[in-house]
Every structure is written in structure tokens, then in C-alpha cells.
Specification:
Helices cover 0% and strands 42% of the residues. It is mostly beta strands and 67 residues long.
Length: 67
């Protein structure tokens, strides 16, 4: 699954003594291989290229008008 702007990305910790991290994709720089600009929950921004199985992308929920 590829990420899109606004999707959340959750990265597993590499070692048991580390915590994972999560953030929001702000830019898609490349689709193959994937490269994203991510604003992490701690406020920092970085370029991130997830390796296979290391990250989960949670699609931005679709908001529907109930009018």
C-alpha cells in the first residue's frame, strides 16, 4: 500500500528497548521506492523511506457530509 498526503504512518521499533514512532505524510516525494516527507508526532519533519514490513500506513479517513 502506498501512502498519500494526510495518511498516518506508524513505524515499528527496530529493537525491543526502543519505541516506535508515528506521524502524518505531508508530501509524497517518490512512489517507487516510496519516499515521504513526514511530520512526526514530536513535531519534527524528515524524509522517510520505509523498508518492507517496517511501517504501517493508515489511510486518511474520508469525511462525508451528512446533509
Amino acid at each position: 500500500m502506498s501512502g498519500r498526503i494526510g495518511d498516518r504512518i506508524v513505524v515499528e521499533a527496530e529493537r525491543a528497548d526502543q519505541t516506535g514512532r508515528a506521524g502524518v505524510i505531508e508530501k509524497v516525494l517518490e512512489e517507487e521506492p516510496p519516499r515521504y516527507e513526514v511530520r512526526w508526532d514530536d513535531g519534527h519533519t524528515s524524509i522517510f523511506s520505509p523498508s518492507a514490513g517496517a511501517a504501517t500506513i493508515e489511510q486518511k479517513s474520508q469525511q462525508v457530509d451528512a446533509q
